[in-house]
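pinned: reference chain
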Amino acid sequence: MKYQKYKSNIKNYKTQGFKKRLYNFVLRLIEFIDKLPKDRVSQRIGDQLIRSGTSILGNYIEGQSASSKRDYTNFFNHSLKSANESKVWVALLRDSKRTNPKEANWFLKELDEISKIFASSILTLKGKR
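pinned: its structure tokens
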């Protein structure tokens, strides 16, 4: 019985840590987008990036109160898709020289790690790992 409680506490700690990581990511993303040039293209890509980037956190939070395992997995799928979409927008901003490449690369690395966490979790939830 004590092991189950210990295991549950570790899982809760990891969940809270990941939620905090996503929250901090979104805060940093907001600052990043705020610093974009005010030209039309940068603003349009920034609009797309804010939607996809905040959707990662939003769907994760929604998943925490899912009514079934299938529903929970579905929210994780949406978060994964949003993370992958966000990579495209950040790469476009970087490659079109509209932002600091070093900062863009940090976002790409973080998005890659976030994507891997969601992908691994989805495989586990589907019993394929």
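why pinned: The longest helix spans residues 2-34. Confidence is low (pLDDT under 50) at residues 6-10.
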